[in-house]
Write a structure and sequence with these properties.
With 216 residues, the protein is α/β, with parallel strands linked by helices. Helices cover 50% and strands 15% of the residues. The protein contains nine helices and eight strands. The chain has helices at residues 13-24, 31-41, 44-55, 61-72, 90-103, 117-125, 166-180, 182-190, 202-215; strands at 3-6, 27-30, 81-84, 109-114, 127-130, 136-138, 158-159, 193-197. The strands form two sheets. It has a five-stranded parallel β-sheet, with helices on both faces. Strands 6-5-7 form a three-stranded antiparallel β-sheet. The chain binds adenosine monophosphate. Residues 9, 31-32, 35, 52-53, 56-59, 64, 85-86, 88, 92, 163, 172 line the site of adenosine monophosphate.
């Protein structure tokens, strides 16, 4: 089963994609994570992408389309994949359609996670992750059981994304509303769009997604 999770930054796409990886054996393909890895590795793509990401703008379609094309050629996506953060505009969606057609693949469901902008700012500006194992936390909603120590791996080092500050989050939301939100209509016309309430708590959102998948 192949899915697209569609929704603004902070909607919970990454959290739910990771859940689905564990439960259904699907592979999360997050262009944001892949680009952050490229930045951390100091590769040519990373060097090109860093300043753009720090401003909350979209990196070029060529870069992300070729990243996804490479990933779809790898064997670990054979059981199915979850696109998280891709496509982000109509040109990317059209490139994805061409890629899928050439590989004889299809998207079974596009799940739109609906949330309101003000909640997103609080969700995003408070989030951080364990530097070692990647477990996610939040200043208000999910602190480690013992302050300063990761619940999962015991590490004392945590990181925040440089683009998770309020000014950049507002720019990212504006980019989403202008460039990515039109994909709701794009997939609505194709007939496989399902909208869920992303304001619900994490287990409830998970349940809503399971319902969609059971019917897909
Ligand atoms: P995310 O982790 O999905 O919030 O992505 C973080 C940043 O990476 C975005 O603000 C963009 O600068 C860049 N990015 C991620 N995915 C894409 C994409 N599909 N197209 C263009 N830029 C992207």
């Amino acid at each position: 089963m192949n899915l697209i999770l569609l929704g603004p930054p902070g909607a919970g796409k990454g959290t739910q994609a990771k859940n689905l990886e564990e439960r259904r054996g699907l592979k999360q393909l997050s262009t944001g994570e892949m680009l952050r890895a490229a930045v951390a590795a100091g590769s040519e793509i990373g060097r090109k992408a860093k300043a753009i990401m720090d401003r909350g703008e979209l990196v070029s379609d060529d870069i992300v389309v070729s990243i996804i094309a490479d990933r779809l050629n790898q064997p670990d996506v054979a059981k199915g994949f979850i696109l998280d953060g891709f496509p982000r505009n109509t040109a990317q969606a059209e490139a994805l359609d061409r890629m899928l057609r050439s590989k004889n693949l299809k998207i079974d469901a596009v799940i739109e996670m609906k949330v309101n902008d003000e909640a997103l700012i609080e969700r995003i500006t408070g989030r951080y992750t364990c530097a070692k194992c990647g477990k996610g936390y939040h200043d208000r909603f999910e602190r480690p059981k013992q302050e300063g120590t990761c619940d999962v791996c015991g590490s004392h080092e945590f990181i925040r994304r440089p683009d998770d500050n309020e000014a950049t989050v507002r720019d990212r939301l504006e980019v989403y509303n202008r460039q990515t939100a039109p994909l709701i209509d794009y997939y609505g016309r194709k007939g496989n769009l399902r909208t869920i309430d992303g304001m619900a708590d994490i287990p409830d959102v998970r349940r809503q997604i399971e319902e969609v998948l059971d019917r897909a």
